[in-house]
Amino acid sequence: xxxxxxxxxxxxxxxxxxxxxxxxxxxxxxxxxxxxxxxxxxxxxxxxxxxxxxxxxxxxxxxxxxxxxxxxxxxxxxxxxxxxxxxxxxxxxxxxxxxxxxxxxxxxxxxxxxxxxxxxxxxxxxxxxxxxxxxxxxxxxxxxxxxxxxxxxxxxxxxxxxxxxxxxxxxxxxxxxxxxxxxxxxxxxxxxxxxxxxxxxxxxxxxxxxxxxxxxxxxxxxxxxxxxxxxxxxxxxxxxxxxxxxxxxxxxxxxxxxxxxx
Amino acid sequence: xxxxxxxxxxxxxxxxxxxxxxxxxxxxxxxxxxxxxxxxxxxxxxxxxxxxxxxxxxxxxxxxxxxxxxxxxxxxxxxxxxxxxxxxxxxxxxxxxx
Lengths: 262, 98
Fold this sequence. Notes:
heterodimer, A: alpha+beta, Jelly Rolls, 2 domains, 5-stranded antiparallel beta sheet, 4-stranded antiparallel beta sheet, 7 helices, B: mainly beta, about 5% helix
């Protein structure tokens, strides 16, 4: 697969994905593409499931965009897999919020072997029932039942984005939605991506000195280099015990991506 | 004999607070109020969070009573991460009207 190097992620972006479990990408699709996709979705009468890309073929432009490919190759290897599963999520006007959950069962993946791409063909405003994610929760092994007593969580991030944005989210990231109190349908197409082979070397724009920045105790979670991001970032302010465990998992994850444990 | 109007009687308000540590002085990471009102449901929101308390202790000062403390037994495997924070459940008995 040919990947344009200029679209590969940087060390900082990879470190931030490992820490937060998400990466937002605003695609410059050809003029009118987002609008055309949204119009077609607005008039769909039933959900075609995995066939949504057959029903709305322009959605393939999201998958084929060089910037999308750059993110996928950076995080899943050059032979990444675009799974056949995809789904149109239409949040109707006046529909309520959706409680926090992790998808699937409690076998959580502390490596980066699969994640979702959530594509939004329209601008998403706070009143449209945006997806809401909790950064850094992707390494937690928490049965969804145990999340039932949580409502709002400090540091949660509403995916309030411009039309044409694809949010890449770790498969195990805690997520829910706000209520849609707008008169508009809120569309999102979910894609699923996977890893084919373990890395033997970094597949992003890697600088061999990326982890050589000295630890800066003054900047802590405001750091802007990979080493300090992996060490200090604490997006929702969890306890010291949890933070130390997160650090270990992050380093393991980074080393896997570097191909050092393959 | 007629029953008293529930709206005029003290009823149980609940507050689930997820604190950073088991200390009542640690910062709150999660906030879920439950009001004793028909059809009341707390909601995940997409706007800025504006909580009246920063800690469980702040809530105690405001008259809330802890009815359940967090479960503190350490996990068998100390490498695992599970839920966010430590859950305190608090109550306040008050007359609450719609």
